[in-house]
Design the sequence.
């Protein structure tokens, strides 16, 4: 699926939940979908304009303001279903931490060890966010038909965060076997884990 189709899918999908302004759409993509999907914000407004031109979204309000409200049309829902039915395209991963660990012999166990606690803290932060989202979803009756699908994506994030935490423990144990941590390094790790 071409990049523009992916952006169109994200925009149409978000608008299928509720009509939004362009600004609200950007926030929804960042705050909700951002847990598993990143989208270039500079693509959102041109995509909205193109989807409007094609009749997939409808604008209410002034033509050139950020306050215009966008909603998905019947043909937009059909287009969304078509895009969702296309095969998922894998995106090659880019993980700076794993890249550094892969070449870790060059910098040694202490330097590699210093990278891992931050990954653990990030995974713990994400897990906390997912738990808060789960509580919020349990307290609302809105979007009841979407909730089971949202919970599927939420569970994937929770599992990934727990796996990342377990991996950091394993990585630190492996790095300890490669060379004992110096005293300063161990103190930094203990502070990060708190």
Sequence:
């Amino acid at each position: 699926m071409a990049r523009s189709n992916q952006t169109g899918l994200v925009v149409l999908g978000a608008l299928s939940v509720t009509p939004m302004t362009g600004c609200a759409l950007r926030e929804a993509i960042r705050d909700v979908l951002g847990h598993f999907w990143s989208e270039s914000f500079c693509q959102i407004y041109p995509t909205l304009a193109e989807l409007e031109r094609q009749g997939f979204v409808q604008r209410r309000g002034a033509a050139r303001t950020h306050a215009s409200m966008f909603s998905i049309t019947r043909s937009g829902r059909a287009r969304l279903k078509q895009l969702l039915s296309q095969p998922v395209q894998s995106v090659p991963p880019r993980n700076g931490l794993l890249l550094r660990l892969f070449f870790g012999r060059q910098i040694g166990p202490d330097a590699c060890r210093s990278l891992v606690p931050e990954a653990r803290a990030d995974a713990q932060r994400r897990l906390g966010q997912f738990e808060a989202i789960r509580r919020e979803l349990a307290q609302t009756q809105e979007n009841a038909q979407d909730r089971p699908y949202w919970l599927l994506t939420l569970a994937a994030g929770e599992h990934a965060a727990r796996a990342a935490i377990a991996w950091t423990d394993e990585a630190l144990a492996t790095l300890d076997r490669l060379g004992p941590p110096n005293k300063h390094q161990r103190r930094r790790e203990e502070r990060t884990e708190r």
